What does this fold into?
Amino acid sequence: MADVRGCHFPEDLLYDVENHIWVKEEGGGKIKIGMTSVATAMAGQLVAFTPKKVGRKVKAGRSCATVESGKWVGPAKSLAGGEVVASNDALVAKPDLANEDPYANWMIELQTDDWDSVKGDYVPGTDVAGPYEAKMEADGFAGCA
It folds into this structure.
């Protein structure tokens, strides 16, 4: 597992460093999407999580959910487009589960439109330390507590 400034990044996942999102391949172009430890550390205690409804389409680069904490409200963006096939009801009921373990508490599952063409836009977990160190430095983020 990669560790950058106290933030953990499992190596079996793919990362959208710019948007602080992780992706896990489920096969057949289906992916699970969640927030990284950096996202939850920056946001603070989550108080609301509103995913796109099952059956709805997500456009590439657009929001697949809205996340709210005491100090931030904003979109969780997906580089991949597709149809929402599942959302994490446990996270809807108790958003701070993502603070407890952001990698066990995924947000949505997406059946992607063209996974092979977008997969290369993500950083593999084995290579994520350098890009995340640079992102944290650029953003002035000291790290995860």
